[in-house]
Design brief:
Chain A: InterPro entries: DYW_dom, PPR_At4g14850-like_plant, PPR_rpt, TPR-like_helical_dom_sf. Chain A: This is DYW domain-containing protein. Chain A: GO terms for molecular function: RNA binding; zinc ion binding. Chain A: It comes from Nelumbo nucifera. Chain A: Keywords: Repeat. The structure holds two protein chains of two kinds. Helix content of chain A is about 55%, strand content about 5%. Chain A is mainly alpha-helical. In chain A, helix 15 packs antiparallel against helix 16 and helix 16 (about 260-275) runs parallel beside helix 18. The longest helix of chain A is centred in the first third of the chain and has 22 residues, at about 25-45. Chain B is an all-alpha fold. Among the domains of chain B are: about 90-225, Tetratricopeptide repeat domain (Serine Threonine Protein Phosphatase 5, Tetratricopeptide repeat, Alpha Horseshoe); about 480-580, no CATH class; about 580-650, no CATH class. Chain B is about 70% helix and about 0% strand. Chain B has helices at about 35-50, 90-105, 110-120, 125-140, 145-155, 160-175, 180-190, 200-210, 215-225, 235-245, 250-265, 270-280, 285-295, 305-320, 320-335, 345-360, 360-370, 380-395, 395-410, 415-430, 430-445, 450-465, 465-480, 485-500, 500-515, 520-530, 535-575, 580-595, 595-610, 615-650. In chain B, helix 5 runs antiparallel to helix 6 (about 160-175). The longest helix of chain B has about 40 residues, at about 535-575. In chain B, about 40% of the residues are buried. The chains are: A mainly alpha, B mainly alpha. The interface between A and B is large, with 99 and 122 residues.
């Protein structure tokens, strides 16, 4: 058994050295190696893994759980696992990250700042640690067991750290529930990967991040300025204005970190993402530091996003003053708003309502829709039932094409053509009726019956009344 | 939808506790006053839990993963969270930008149409796109379009966010439907997975104050505070302005004290204007001026925006301190350096123009008004109206006309009030034709004057003896509006005095046509007397009789139509169900059979109605006959049909 583990470990370190070498070369070796590993595993598959564990604390990793995704992957073979995706997961999610400010390059760079370069740290990780679990979680599993071989040795903080750096939030949280004490950089990495993770849906990211931050505070760790940036971005993605402000204030008051412009920017992000644009503007105006171009640009983008034209223009003006390169050439001037009672100070002097529509108007447009007035005479020859005249007229009104057109008229926007498909021939009376309808509503009605297409327009049909 | 009635912030500490406001510098930053982040988070999660959204980290802690319910097809009707800003990417972002461009070009119809069309396309617009269109519609006061778009997106399942709610509440408040707005607010509080924003309260309080519901507004302010929002100076300012209007000076001062107690020294300048007005109301001029000095002195900590300055300016100029107001106005003009510092806006000029007019210095008022362009402010319709009104009421019609011309040059659209003002001025100046011209222009430009405006132009024309023109306008009014009896009576008097009897009769006929109007006996006598002069009184009698008859006919037709629709419904149901020959025969048979009793009925009727004029009765009895035949046949038919269908069932 021990020899087997030894091989494992050496295998890992071999990996690490290979990977430090040039990439194509290592790839080649890598595939060979993984094959070898696979062989090893298939040999050891049936070994009762539990027997390795001697730790007093029952460890999740010591139980082979079929539902555990890592164990599940075990069957997939190691060769498959060594895919490029696995190699740099951070990078991918990084590029695809849903940035709230699509217009803002500045803001993107802010996000970068908030997010320590994951790839580099991963490389470092290779060098230092001999890849604990890069290609194969099983691998890591094994190693874990080895480390647990000594009694009362919980999963180490370093492992947690490496998990965080790879963005394996699930695993990291699992570790933490098992009692691994996370330290500050771990939490920071975890918060960041929470914010970047593609696995979580948007609202959840922030929630999870905030929950982690709460845990962190409970553990008595002292967050630093970088952590607060991550917390603010979590607040932005969870759209929690209140907590954003609470954390922002606790940063100054409890932890004595004086907020930099990027923190203010973070708060503006929180407000903007939650739709509080007016409040964001007030916040910027009340800031004790002079707002930079980036701040105004963020505000402008959020105003644009939420459709506040006036605020957008205002922010843009201020932005151009600070950074004239952002000026937009030949911009369409904004239409003045129709009602400006908020600014024009003439309260009680607006008497237009007294001169407008206090009395009801007569329904002129309803009159226009009356078909009989437009010359429609029901042609009851097409009703073959032996019923009296009135009932025949009534029966004509319920022909399916008319019902379809009536529904089409009330449920589509004006002026668009309507297309009706009917499986039987249109009757002569309906043909007339539709001609008149097309004239009244001013739309093109295209009716297909089982013989041909009829294009009704302006009271005429394309078939020339012959079909 | 709500799983439980929400209990709001029960854990909330009282606001007076000092640790809530640790440093006065950042006081205004805080929106909500929770004591700890845990409380805030708890409240937020409670709101979300109503939508059955998992608590955080839950999905990560899968210690017993097999117990997690696997639900591959979630209920599509389940309530959802509004979209997050990050969804605005790719095609949806392109659509957003396209629609924003349309809004910039002020092609709102197209923007709204595009939004609707893309709802069911493969690129669904985000809630942000819908909000942008609705905000643009609100900005142009197109409330009907806004509401219909809102209804559309709600039906299409676009989940509203707080901005959507604010826009809708704003629209309701602008339409003076504060009750609807409050109802909507209640819905937001009860069901939405997020909290209202301070802007929501600002909009609501302003709407309530504008509609003279100050008590409800005060209640809302208290509600806002109990919900944990920090006291907002802008909300307090609206309330204080409302109390100034009431007028309730003590209330104003009490509100200010409350705000001061909660915030410490008030650094937002907006409240100072209304505070000064409160002091002036109480006759405490000295305090008012002290307050003024505190707000505008050089090293003041109070931040004065344009709105804040305007309200102070207004307080000064309305309370006999116009010299001071002029000084302040100069200071504001100097301080103004857009875009960094905005101290002057449209309102400042309006207040000054008002002030000059009140002093009788109309030339200065116009001069101030013209200065607006220098500071990149543009007057709107209301400011033009105000100045035109001042000028007209002081007999300066020529200047008013200049201003009116300027409006069209500057692209400001005159509204109904502008035209009525110009019309009044022209009538006062004995230029009735021009006045009528203004009225015509108003109607042409698609504005919708009401009865008051119509009566004004008709009165004016009648006074100068242009009755023909007056009749044209009256006819127009009858066509477009529901006209009151009094307007008819006035017109009848005028016409009979002028001896236009044909017109009189036509008008009476018009009046009788409208069911909601009735010719009073007084009026009838008056018209008869007028007709008697020419010996044409019998014409009126004839007219009235004809009217009576028509009414009877109409009643008849209604009854007939009601029955006919019933029968046909029964018939169609019957005929589709009945397939056997037997049944068919039966229906045809009784159709012939019923004619006889029907004729008898009709004869009875004609006997009873003999007093009517010969020809008219003939026509009527014909129609009545037909009607009765119809009625009886249809009734029988129904019964028969019922029988038939019963048979069907038994068979």
């Amino acid at each position: 058994m021990a020899t087997f583990m030894m091989i494992q470990r050496t295998g890992n370190s071999i990996f690490a050295t290979f990977l430090k070498a040039r990439a194509p070369y290592s790839y080649k070796l890598f595939s060979n190696h993984s094959l070898k590993l696979k062989g090893l595993f298939s040999a050891s598959r049936n070994l009762p893994l539990r027997s390795f564990g001697t730790s007093a604390v029952p460890n999740n990793f010591q139980k082979p759980q079929p539902s555990d995704p890592r164990v599940f992957r075990h069957d997939g073979g190691v060769a498959q696992r060594g895919n490029p995706n696995q190699r740099n997961p951070q990078d991918q999610s990084y590029a695809q990250r849903g940035n709230p400010n699509q217009w803002s390059s500045q803001n993107q760079s802010f996000a970068q700042r908030a997010n320590p370069n994951q790839r580099n740290s991963q490389d470092q990780n290779f060098a230092q640690r001999g890849t604990p679990n890069l290609w194969n979680p099983q691998d890591q599993n094994q190693k874990q067991i080895v480390e647990n071989g000594a009694p009362s040795a919980p999963p180490a903080n370093v492992d947690l750290m490496s998990l965080c750096r790879e963005g394996k939030i699930k695993e990291a949280v699992d570790f933490m529930t098992q009692g691994v004490r996370a330290d500050l950089p771990t939490f920071r990495a975890l918060l960041n990967s929470c914010a970047n993770s593609k696995l979580l849906e948007e609202g959840k990211k922030g929630d999870d991040g905030l929950q982690l931050f709460e845990q962190m505070r409970k553990l008595g760790l002292r967050p630093d300025a970088q952590t607060f940036l991550a917390v603010l971005s979590a607040c932005a993605s969870a759209e929690t204005v209140e907590e954003g402000f609470i954390h922002f204030e606790s940063m100054k008051n409890e932890y004595g970190i004086s907020p930099g412009i990027e923190h203010y920017l973070g708060v503006v992000d929180v407000l903007g993402a939650s739709g509080h644009v007016t409040e964001a503007k007030e916040f910027i105006e009340n800031m004790p530091v002079e707002p930079t171009a980036a701040v105004w640009e963020t505000l402008m983008n959020f105003a644009k996003l939420h459709g506040d034209i006036d605020l957008e223009d205002h922010a843009e003006e201020l932005l151009v003053v600070l950074d004239s390169s952002k000026a937009v050439a030949n911009k369409i001037p904004t239409q003045p708003p129709k009602k400006r009672s908020a600014v024009n100070m003439l309260e009680g002097k607006n008497r237009v309502s007294e001169y407008r529509s206090a009395t009801p108007y007569k329904g002129e447009e309803v009159k226009g829709l009356n078909m009989k007035e437009a010359g429609y005479v029901p042609d009851t020859r097409y009703v073959l039932h032996d019923i009296d005249q009135e009932a025949k007229e009534q029966a004509l009104l319920y022909h399916s094409e008319r019902l379809a057109i009536a529904y089409g008229l009330i449920s589509t926007p004006a002026r668009t053509p309507l297309r009706i498909i009917k499986n039987l021939r249109v009757c002569g009376d309906c043909h007339n009726a539709i001609k008149i309808m097309s004239k009244i509503v001013g739309r093109e009605l295209i009716v297909r019956d089982n013989k041909r297409f009829h294009h009704f327009k302006d009271g005429k049909c394309s078939c020339g009344d012959y079909w | 939808m709500a799983l439980s009635k929400p209990v709001f912030f029960p854990h909330l500490k009282t606001l007076s506790k000092p640790h809530h406001h640790p440093s006065p510098l950042y006081l205004s930053l805080r929106l909500l006053s929770f004591a700890t982040p845990e409380e805030a988070a708890a409240e937020r999660r409670r709101r979300k839990r109503r939508l059955r959204i998992e608590p955080p980290l839950n999905s990560l802690r899968h210690t017993q993963p097999q117990q997690r319910p696997i639900n591959p097809t979630p209920n599509p009707n389940a309530p959802k969270l509004p979209e997050h800003v990050s969804v605005l990417t790719g095609n949806r972002l392109n659509l957003h930008n396209r629609i924003l461009k349309l809004i910039r070009e002020n092609d709102l119809d197209e923007a709204a149409l595009l939004t609707r069309h893309s709802i069911y396309s493969n690129c669904r617009p985000t809630v942000f796109t819908c909000n942008s269109v609705m905000a643009a519609l609100l900005r142009q006061s197109r409330y009907a379009d806004l509401l219909s778009l809102h209804r559309f997106i709600t039906q299409a399942g676009v989940v509203p966010n707080v901005v959507t709610h604010n826009l809708l509440i704003n629209a309701y408040c602008d339409c003076r439907k504060t009750d609807t707005a409050l109802e909507h607010y209640k819905q937001l509080i009860n069901d939405a997975p997020f909290n209202p924003s301070p802007t929501t309260y600002r909009i609501l309080v302003k709407g309530l104050v504008d509609n003279n519901k100050i008590d409800r507004a005060l209640q809302l302010k208290d509600e806002m505070l109990t919900k944990g929002f920090a006291p907002d100076p802008i909300v307090y300012n609206y309330l204080m302005l409302g109390l100034v209007k009431k007028p309730d000076a003590d209330g104003v001062l009490a509100l200010y004290d409350e705000l001061k107690e909660k915030l410490g020294p008030v650094s937002d300048g907006v409240v100072y204007g209304s505070l000064m007005k409160g002091y002036f109301l109480k006759g405490m001029e000295k305090e008012a001026m002290e307050c003024y000095a505190e707000a505008v002195r050089e090293d003041s900590r109070v931040r004065m925006s344009a709105v804040a300055y305007n309200s102070v300016l207004d307080a000064l100029s309305k309370n006999g301190k116009f010299d001071e107001a002029m000084r302040l106005f100069d200071q504001m003009m100097e301080e103004h350096s857009p875009p960094r510092r905005l101290t002057v806006n449209l309102g400042s000029f309006n207040v000054m123009a008002d002030g000059f007019c009140a002093q009788g210095r109309f030339k200065d008022a116009i001069e101030v008004f013209r200065k607006m362009g220098e500071k990149r402010c543009s007057p709107d319709t209301l400011s033009f109206n105000n100045l035109i009104q001042q000028l007209c009421s002081n007999g300066m019609v020529a200047e008013a006309e200049d201003l009116y011309r300027e409006m069209s040059e500057k692209g400001v659209n005159p509204d109904e009030f502008t035209y009525v003002l110009m019309m009044d001025a022209c009538f006062a100046d004995n230029r009735a034709d021009e006045a009528a011209g203004y009225f015509g222009k108003m109607v042409e430009s698609g504005l919708r004057p009401n009865a008051v405006a119509y009566n004004k132009v008709i009165d004016g024309l009648v006074k100068v003896g242009k009755i023909d023109q007056a009749i044209v306008f009256f006819d127009q009014m009858v066509e477009k509006l529901k006209v009151e009896v009094t307007s008819y009576e006035e017109m009848l008097k005028v016409l009979s005095e002028a001896g236009k009897l044909d017109e009189v009769l036509k008008l009476v006929a018009d009046m009788l046509k409208d069911d909601s109007l009735s010719l009073s006996s007084e009026m009838q006598e008056f018209v008869t007397a007028a007709l008697k002069k020419e010996g044409r009184e019998e014409e009126l009698v004839k007219l009235l009789e004809e009217k009576e008859r028509e009414k009877a006919e109409a009643l008849f037709k209604e009854a007939e139509a009601a029955n006919a629709s019933e029968t046909s419904a029964a018939l169609t149901a019957g005929s589709s169900a009945i397939l056997s020959n037997e049944a068919k025969v039966e229906t045809t048979n009784f159709g012939e059979a019923t004619i006889n009793p029907a004729l008898v009925n009709a004869a009875d009727l004609t006997v009873g109605d003999q007093q009517n004029n010969q020809e008219a009765t003939a026509v009527e009895s014909d129609s009545a006959e037909a009607g009765v035949v119809q009625v009886s046949t249809t009734e029988d038919l129904k019964i028969k049909n019922d029988d038939v269908s019963a048979e069907q069932v038994t068979v």
